[in-house]
Amino acid sequence: MSADDTQEAREQLIDLAAQFYDQFELGEIPHMSVPTRTKNNIEYDEDKDVWVYGDRESTRSANSVRGARKLLKAVYTIEFLADQLEEDRSSTLRELYYLSESWDNKEAQFSDQDESNGLIEDLEIVSGVTREDFHMRPEESGATIMGPLHLREQTRRGEREIHCQKDVGEGGYQIPNNPDTIDFLDCDADFILAVETGGMRDRLVENGFDEEYNALIVHLKGQPARATRRITRRLHDELDLPVTVFTDGDPWSYRIYGSVAYGSIKSAHLSEYLATPEAQFIGIQPADIVEYDLPTDPLSDSDVNALESELEDPRFQTDYWEEQIELQLDLGKKSEQQALASHGLDFVTETYLPERLGEMGVL
Amino acid sequence: MSADDTQEAREQLIDLAAQFYDQFELGEIPHMSVPTRTKNNIEYDEDKDVWVYGDRESTRSANSVRGARKLLKAVYTIEFLADQLEEDRSSTLRELYYLSESWDNKEAQFSDQDESNGLIEDLEIVSGVTREDFHMRPEESGATIMGPLHLREQTRRGEREIHCQKDVGEGGYQIPNNPDTIDFLDCDADFILAVETGGMRDRLVENGFDEEYNALIVHLKGQPARATRRITRRLHDELDLPVTVFTDGDPWSYRIYGSVAYGSIKSAHLSEYLATPEAQFIGIQPADIVEYDLPTDPLSDSDVNALESELEDPRFQTDYWEEQIELQLDLGKKSEQQALASHGLDFVTETYLPERLGEMGVL
């Protein structure tokens, strides 16, 4: 992130606090409105092609002691963040929670971490600045990249130029917490292949899939961290790379795809920043279980419930997903991506992926 | 791993299969004995300073259909592993399980993954070769290193020389699944600081702790992967670096320390390879909760049970641990490592760690 962005984030925060002064001057009770963050209040933005919050708002107002305390905490947090940005430092959500114990006003201290996490989300939404730009680091680190990409990362210790095949070990390039510190210098990749499990990621690297097909292999490590989703979005936007997602064939993995493509309900305000609506699902599709005769496990009750809840989820209401989910409920079965090994260790790279990526128009 | 090691691992496996032929010739029923892997069958090896299996054994014998089937599966697996080593390929435990579906003899196929995992452990124990040397990759990847270490990693794509401060981004160097492919070229570090949480790892890197104190910061990511424990052991053995472990102050985190220092019951046969008995615990110690006046949470019932079970665990039967665990049960409280932020973001690097490492004789 550049010094300009830091300055801008700081100004946005100070503007928020200044609002309260304006409200005082106008004789209003200080207040702050934020969109309600529930499933009923997300809607599709046709222009931007992402899910965003609807019009429902809830208001934090100083007209009650409880509301006044919320605003007090917001102001203390804004001051902390503004100082942090001025000193070019950063901190985690958990550190913010503990740090509040050192604040001089006991009323401003957080009673639990849900409260401080929620406040940071509020501030993201009302300021339009992401928490990374507040220099709030996530706890979970991003995953890794392997493929023909040359990048420059701005670190606190100076710039680092790294080629994500030639300058890294077999583990790949570790995505930093804030990938907006990265500039893409040169890229020979034709598409991004985001992979759920470490075992499959290692299989693709061992089989040289990134070299043979000019793929950028991004390891999702299960539910992807914000940093992983952010860099995927940037690679798509800035380098015009198609994004494909390869997971296990069960409802939990479809949610992983959903989080890459549509974002999560809790962070719909960040969809434009984190989600890649053009991301395509490779599989394991329920149809693949039949077509490739894969080893399966029976669906558990919680699998069935999760599939049924996906049928109700606006993010999965497309013909494609309805067909696949209905098929899976009929089959009563699920398969893992590593089940492809039942046809040999090269089946995934020599047969399955080339066929699927061909069907999808990526290869 | 060198070509010689690969050849040796392959020969060990083939020797195992050859044993069955010898047993046939001697008119014996083919069988294989392995140590029992339970808490009652681990004991302290004074010479090697690690916990190892005792004398209790269980025998897989072809004198029953069930036993014969177990040996059949072992022989098929040995053949698969020997071929894999010959072709210089690798695979995951999960791939082995699925791959067995392609074997011509249905009786040799695994009925679930616990069975194939258990068999690989049996083969490790009886052959004295680790699964990494069979080229079986773990599912979970290792964590990251940041610090003054220059290394060379042998990858399938050639050698990579990487300095773990100068050639990496803020995320650090990603430890490969098999760290025995690494040679240490040059190291200016004075000690290893293994850290449980990502938030604290990032704090130490942001505050430049690795530079100021010549520390190798190894991120454990919760319960450490085999690769992380292995490289820690090698750094200790080959570079003579003291190992210190910094975790949250609760019974689950003491187990993380225990897994670095003593290994786990399930992998006592690997203690010599994975465990670093000289590793010292920094904290958060129960005594630190009092001394540094840290924010706490009350112990839950499961915390209390876990502490009481640690008092019974041979690996924690030292004066130090008994005192700390008794103190914690008296206090009824636990603290996270990030709770140090209640004294400011620099407290951990300017006060807590220098004081604790001084007491421990590391600084």
TrEMBL record, chains A, B:
<dbReference type="InterPro" id="IPR049333">
    <property type="entry name" value="Topo_VI_alpha"/>
</dbReference>
<dbReference type="Pfam" id="PF20768">
    <property type="entry name" value="Topo_VI_alpha"/>
</dbReference>
<dbReference type="GO" id="GO:0006260">
    <property type="term" value="P:DNA replication"/>
</dbReference>
<keyword id="KW-0238">DNA-binding</keyword>
<dbReference type="GO" id="GO:0000287">
    <property type="term" value="F:magnesium ion binding"/>
</dbReference>
<keyword id="KW-0460">Magnesium</keyword>
<keyword id="KW-0479">Metal-binding</keyword>
<dbReference type="GO" id="GO:0003918">
    <property type="term" value="F:DNA topoisomerase type II (double strand cut, ATP-hydrolyzing) activity"/>
</dbReference>
<keyword id="KW-0799">Topoisomerase</keyword>
<dbReference type="GO" id="GO:0003677">
    <property type="term" value="F:DNA binding"/>
</dbReference>
<feature type="domain" description="Type II DNA topoisomerase VI subunit A all-beta">
    <location>
        <begin position="139"/>
        <end position="188"/>
    </location>
</feature>
<keyword id="KW-0067">ATP-binding</keyword>
<dbReference type="InterPro" id="IPR013049">
    <property type="entry name" value="Spo11/TopoVI_A_N"/>
</dbReference>
<dbReference type="InterPro" id="IPR036078">
    <property type="entry name" value="Spo11/TopoVI_A_sf"/>
</dbReference>
<feature type="active site" description="O-(5'-phospho-DNA)-tyrosine intermediate">
    <location>
        <position position="98"/>
    </location>
</feature>
<feature type="binding site">
    <location>
        <position position="196"/>
    </location>
    <ligand>
        <name>Mg(2+)</name>
    </ligand>
</feature>
<protein>
    <recommendedName>
        <fullName>Type 2 DNA topoisomerase 6 subunit A</fullName>
        <ecNumber>5.6.2.2</ecNumber>
    </recommendedName>
</protein>
<comment type="similarity">
    <text>Belongs to the TOP6A family.</text>
</comment>
<dbReference type="InterPro" id="IPR004085">
    <property type="entry name" value="TopoVI_A"/>
</dbReference>
<feature type="domain" description="Spo11/DNA topoisomerase VI subunit A N-terminal">
    <location>
        <begin position="69"/>
        <end position="135"/>
    </location>
</feature>
<feature type="binding site">
    <location>
        <position position="248"/>
    </location>
    <ligand>
        <name>Mg(2+)</name>
    </ligand>
</feature>
<dbReference type="GO" id="GO:0006265">
    <property type="term" value="P:DNA topological change"/>
</dbReference>
<feature type="domain" description="Topoisomerase 6 subunit A/Spo11 TOPRIM">
    <location>
        <begin position="191"/>
        <end position="357"/>
    </location>
</feature>
<keyword id="KW-0547">Nucleotide-binding</keyword>
<dbReference type="InterPro" id="IPR002815">
    <property type="entry name" value="Spo11/TopoVI_A"/>
</dbReference>
<dbReference type="Pfam" id="PF04406">
    <property type="entry name" value="TP6A_N"/>
</dbReference>
<dbReference type="InterPro" id="IPR034136">
    <property type="entry name" value="TOPRIM_Topo6A/Spo11"/>
</dbReference>
<comment type="subunit">
    <text>Homodimer. Heterotetramer of two Top6A and two Top6B chains.</text>
</comment>
<comment type="function">
    <text>Relaxes both positive and negative superturns and exhibits a strong decatenase activity.</text>
</comment>
<dbReference type="GO" id="GO:0005524">
    <property type="term" value="F:ATP binding"/>
</dbReference>
<dbReference type="Pfam" id="PF21180">
    <property type="entry name" value="TOP6A-Spo11_Toprim"/>
</dbReference>
<dbReference type="InterPro" id="IPR036388">
    <property type="entry name" value="WH-like_DNA-bd_sf"/>
</dbReference>
<keyword id="KW-0413">Isomerase</keyword>
